[in-house]
Amino acid sequence: MFGFDLSDDHQAFRELAHDFAENEMRxxxxxxxxxxxxxxxxxxxxxxxxLMNTHVPEEYGGMGLGAFPGALISEELAWGCxxxxxxxxxxxxxxxxxxxxxxxxxxxxxxxxxxxELKMAAYAVTEPGAGSDVAxxxxxxxxxxxxxxxxxSKMWITNAxxxxxxxxxxxxxxxxxxxxxxxxxxxxxxxxxxxxxxEINMGQRCSDTRAVTFTDVEVPxxxxxxxxxxxxxxxxxxxxxxxxxxxxxxVGLAKAAMEYAxxxxxxxxxxxxxxxxxxxxxxxxxxxxxxxxAGRLLVWKAAWSADQGRPNTTLASMAKAFNxxxxxxxxxxAVQIFGGYGFNTEYPVEKLxxxxxxxxxxxxxxxxQRLIISRNLLSRR
Length: 381
Ligand SMILES: Cc1cc2nc3c(=O)[nH]c(=O)nc-3n(C[C@H](O)[C@H](O)[C@H](O)COP(=O)(O)OP(=O)(O)OC[C@H]3O[C@@H](n4cnc5c(N)ncnc54)[C@H](O)[C@@H]3O)c2cc1C
Hints:
There is one protein chain. The chain has 381 residues and is of the alpha+beta class. It folds into three domains: 8-116, Butyryl-Coa Dehydrogenase, subunit A, domain 1; 121-232, Butyryl-CoA Dehydrogenase, subunit A, domain 2; 238-378, Up-down Bundle (Butyryl-CoA Dehydrogenase, subunit A, domain 3), CATH 1.20.140. It has helices spanning 8-35, 40-49, 67-80, 82-101, 104-111, 113-116, 231-267, 279-307, 313-338, 349-357, 366-378, and strands spanning 121-124, 140-144, 147-158, 165-171, 181-187, 193-195, 209-220, 224-225, 269-270, 273-274. The strands form three sheets. It has a four-stranded mixed β-sheet. The protein has a four-stranded antiparallel β-sheet with strand order 2-3-7-6, covered by helices on one side. It has a two-stranded antiparallel ribbon with strand order 9-10. A hairpin with a 2-residue loop joins strand 2 (140-144) and strand 3 (147-158). Helix 3 (67-80) packs antiparallel against helix 4. The longest helix has 37 residues, at 231-267. The model has no long low-confidence stretch (mean pLDDT 97).
């Protein structure tokens, strides 16, 4: 059987997320953009409704939703506001490698409490000198008895200033390159963990992004996620689940931009008729609609493949690159359709353009997605 109809459950999640985006996110999106205030109140309500940490298994108090329903929710939340959406979804990124590779004890200690009350987590891999090139990282964890001593710095860590714990990757054996990286859960309150100031970003401004420094932090050996030497695999493996969700968020932003553009193009008149009747404008809107449809299909296939346990790394990268690039183009075209008003903060589309840019950068840049896609294709020959 083949079809695109959603199940009743999927439809219900989608509607729940859409109503939440419309009633709880959109009304405060501009406020949080301007003030950069972390959206605790919105997150509290989202947590109560079960819109956060959706892939945590039932065993740990979650709903155990797959990537596909996660993507449906992610699109709707991003339609509401991607700044607030990123604050929510960053939890999912930190949780993903722990759910894949963490011990039952770690999940009970760090994951389950996140279902009882609103707690945030962060995924700390990027460093000042190591973003796309993860192997260039210099953070180290040196074994000392039943502990590891962690030293180094991380950069651009979402939720760093508001989290209870971080998923951290460090070298335990630098000589072994990728195979010498180990992942740990590090509590934010431990001695030697220091978070920097909240970064002032171009878009998604209420999301909390900071540098983190580790100075002689003592990490118990039981806080290793998985086993020593598997940190790189876990950190990258998480993206198979999360990239379709980021891609879906880009679809949600693009859809919002297109809707605003259509509404404005039907209202605004030049040369005696609505600008929607000028072919140059109408075709821009047609391009938006076709890219949104195509992008959503890619997301659905990438997410569905993840849920089937099929290899989806290439599809996840395709979905992420396609939709990140499309969202940025569509948001820019929406500004164009608004003309001078599009450039002004009184109208919603300039925020969408600023917010859209990061989709091409975080969770692997658009160039890195193409690198993954091309390597996977070319290595088969
Ligand atoms: C707001 C924000 C939130 C973030 N959140 C997190 C987080 O929660 N956790 C985390 O660990 N990180 C996070 N990041 C970091 C993010 O993932 C990195 O910024 C990203 O991976 C790029 O790394 P970089 O900034 O070091 O750029 P670089 O790796 O230095 O890249 C610079 C440019 O060179 C290009 N480039 C690099 N290598 C290649 C290549 N081999 N081929 C072609 N082009 C290449 C890149 O595409 C880019 O255009 C966040 C970043 C931002 C800005």
